[in-house]
Amino acid sequence: MAASSGDLRDVQNSCDGCELCGAMENLLRCGGCRTAYYCSKEHQRTHWKKHKRICKSKSKKGDRDPTASQQPRVTLATEGNVISNNTCDSKAEADSQSKSQAQKTAKAKQNGTGLSSVSPDFTSFRSFSDMLPEDVDNNRDGSRDAPANRTELDAKRDKDMAEYIVRRLNTDGICVVDNFLEEPVGESILEEVKGLREEGVFSDGQLVNQAAADTARNIRGDIITWVEGKEANCRRIGHLVSRMDTIIMKCNSKLGKCKINGRTKAMVACYPGGGSRYIRHVDNPNGDGRCVTCIYYLNKNWDVRKNGGLLRIFPQGRDEVADIEPRFNRLLFFWSDRRNPHEVQEAFATRYAITVWYFDAEERARAMERSRNSIGNS
């Protein structure tokens, strides 16, 4: 029996989602402590090594959530919303050995195009919009709020979003934000991008180390144009970049050692279908100053099974990949350097995105100095 939408909102208010992956749907409650939630028995078993001490302590002392009996019973599509822990210990060692063996197998299968394993633990990203109260995320037109309240809600949303981005970048190196702008604004940005393409201002994407034209087209198949956002036909794109800047500045000084002091223009990119792609690469392999890549997607009703165009990230030092679908009104952040090699897989429909790179002040200064010295010695 599936949970009703009302039940799901209550659960979201009473817990932080699955302890392992953060999922907020179809939650099961731990049968030992009754305070932890999981989206599946498999995720509970995987997380048991970390959870068992807390769980057994609460179970032994009877230190359970005093409101547990009042919390809604949410099930998966089968009977039983409480997961029993009596098999977790016996399976923990076997699961650990299985995971270790899987990692070894994955490493053995690595090749020049990337890693062979896809971990659901790492790819099940919680988008920021999934964590917002309904009145903040879905009522963005202000129709039910007084102007002052709307301003306060927007300010709180920006603050919460910045904190979430900082947390996810520092933990995973990747962060997803869905429903970033009001949908009509996103649609108007898409119309501006389509208008730019009709004007014929796009050209073939370039490489850091430029190869011959035919070789370059095999490496990346997108066409691009750069805009300030101040152009008369790019006002909505300018609004998007301004919103990106606002969020990034709220994150500044909290993103590791980065001190962001500038950015590139907005790169508007189109993969025109026909299997166009961008093979595995790193945005900033040589310390040019770019520290954060920020991509906004504009693809309505995108189906990667039919349309392709998946962004796959290969986080450094991990035997897993992160698959990001280029969905409409989705904003993606990730570190620009060698920590995140990535590729755009073959696209079979027109795929649009807008990318901005943010500069770390110190690395950018060193890059500019190297450039000046290179020119002076030539």
Automatic annotation (TrEMBL):
Co-factor(s): L-ascorbate
Identification of the protein by name: hypoxia-inducible factor-proline dioxygenase
Biased composition (Low complexity): 97-110
Pfam families named in the record: 2OG-FeII_Oxy_3 (PF13640), zf-MYND (PF01753)
Region span, Disordered: 50-155
SMART domains reported for this sequence: P4Hc
Biased composition (Basic residues): 50-59
Main location: nucleus
Organism, as annotated: Branchiostoma lanceolatum (Common lancelet)
Composition bias type Polar residues, residue spans: 111-127
Record-listed E.C. numbers: 1.14.11.29
Domain MYND-type: 18-55
Catalytic reaction(s) noted: L-prolyl-[hypoxia-inducible factor alpha subunit] + 2-oxoglutarate + O2 = trans-4-hydroxy-L-prolyl-[hypoxia-inducible factor alpha subunit] + succinate + CO2
